[in-house]
Specification:
2 copies of one chain form a homodimer. The longest helix of chain A is centred in the first third of the chain and has 25 residues, at 64-88. The radius of gyration of chain A is 17 Å and the shape is globular. With 258 residues, the first copy, chain A, is an alpha/beta fold. Chain A has 8 helices and 14 strands. Chain A has a single domain (2-256), classed as Acetylglutamate kinase-like (Carbamate kinase, 3-Layer(aba) Sandwich), CATH 3.40.1160. Chain A starts with a strand and ends with a strand. Chain A has an 8-stranded mixed beta sheet, sandwiched between helices. A two-stranded antiparallel ribbon of chain A has the order 3-4. In chain A, strands 6-7 form a two-stranded antiparallel ribbon. The first copy, chain A, has helices spanning 9-12, 15-25, 41-48, 64-88, 129-137, 160-171, 204-212, 220-232, and strands spanning 2-7, 32-36, 55-56, 59-60, 93-96, 106-108, 120-122, 141-144, 147-149, 155-157, 177-183, 201-202, 237-242, 254-256. In chain A, helix 3 (41-48) crosses helix 4 (64-88).
Chain lengths: 258, 258
């Protein structure tokens, strides 16, 4: 089973949490692809450069200067620090973004009511399965930054959850894939303040209820939508769990199934 | 013949020159590795972040914050823009830094009279020939940023001329290699202001004369030293030429031979 594991800003921004996560990651058996988000550094650098950060529904509006910053921070700083840290642990990590080897090609999101700027949505059919599987077959761990390209020379800022889902689905044509969304909580919670309220399993009917009663809202919606999209398109197993749980026999978390 | 081509800040900093160079690059026949330098953007970003840029003999003193900046700019911004631009031209470029796939491992330069900080000198024996040749064999063009790692988890800022030389020498165990240093002038000039004074060929005896009479000085010395090191260690051909000359039947420039 190939694991595609996504970590977000809560891991990337906290050196101690990140180091502990990477310690766990190298203990996993079997091949693995790591997808990472960006974190707060991009906002800090933007601020220092006098670029206003504009978020709409938790997504960064990406003008040309902001694209430069997220490219620097995600595909440069964060990606290469993780690659070097894994190399230091004896894991042959290979950091890349979507432009490298044509790994992930996106369509630029057309400006509707909101113009997100240089933001792209991955095109599944154009995913570079041969590039990723070459690395995996040769024993490298791909470490993917959420910067993609349009195939015509332009880089695009891309949601890391969506990158992870796209990679997981695309690689399902070659491998049995488990997609793991690591997360600041132990999984999807019925009551956000009650650790005992972990929802162990969500299927579509349950999801409809959870959305209707407001248990699932905000940024959790696109994450769970991505998870369902993955299971509907060939990914064998999808889990949303804590970033400290990937090594456990049973990582707990919330399993997403049809 | 595999070409290892190095471009510096004069190409990277000028969008028009870079685009024109990349137009030429994709016309070359046969496999190619591109190594790029950094350019002025790192200095600008450092300034905006309130980090003082300290250069000694043309080399950047790299404290921890400066390392973050050069990693961002070289391995993120510059590297990924070039990769995406080449992809847009139909060339399957694969951007990487020395940490990726263990491509280039360096030893941190020990603090002598001058402490350069997080600066590394590549270790030839630890170069990831298998990583680079895998990419080349599979039809990718490696695009290498001059950030390396020490194999223990730390990134290191590394001179791009030296990276190019190390890659050229290491790949000479597998390929016939030509190393091309692209440059802001047409080659090594006897009189810097006279385009007709191009020195077409330098051997060690001639080099000794040129150094003794001051024709070659400053930043040209490490570049030519790198060139001689390459020819002495198995690289078939080494040329220093203008960045507009790589496509010409005879790129002119200055050939370095024993």
């Amino acid at each position: 089973m190939l694991k595609v594991i996504k970590i977000g800003g809560n891991v990337v921004d906290n050196r101690e949490v990140l180091e502990s996560f990477l310690d766990d990651l190298v203990k996993l058996e079997g091949p693995c692809v790591l997808v990472h988000g960006g974190g707060k550094v991009a906002t800090e650098i933007s601020k220092a450069l006098g670029i206003e950060t504009k978020m709409i529904d938790g997504r960064r509006v990406t003008d040309e200067r902001t694209l430069d910053v997220v490219t620097m921070v995600y595909a440069g700083l964060v990606n290469k620090k993780i690659a070097a840290s894994l190399q230091g642990r004896g894991m042959n990590a290979f950091g890349l973004c979507g432009a490298d080897g044509g790994a992930i090609t996106s369509g630029r999101r057309s400006a509707g009511a909101i113009d997100y700027g240089f933001v792209g949505d991955p095109i599944l059919e154009l995913t570079g399965v041969s590039t990723l599987s070459m690395l995996i077959e040769r024993g490298y761990m791909p470490v993917i930054a959420p910067i993609t390209h349009d195939g015509k020379g332009t880089l695009l800022n891309t949601n890391a959850d969506t990158v992870a889902r796209t990679v997981a689905v695309a690689l399902s044509s070659v491998y049995e894939v488990e997609l793991i969304y690591c997360f600041e909580m132990a999984g999807v919670m019925a009551h956000i303040d009650d650790p005992a309220s972990l929802i162990s399993h969500i299927d579509p009917a349950h999801y409809a209820e959870l959305r209707a009663d407001g248990t699932v809202s905000g940024g959790m919606i696109p994450k769970i939508d991505n998870a369902f999209d993955a299971v509907r398109n060939g990914v064998k197993s999808v889990v949303i769990c804590g970033c400290d749980a990937i090594c456990k026999e049973n990582c707990g978390g919330t399993r997403i199934t049809l």
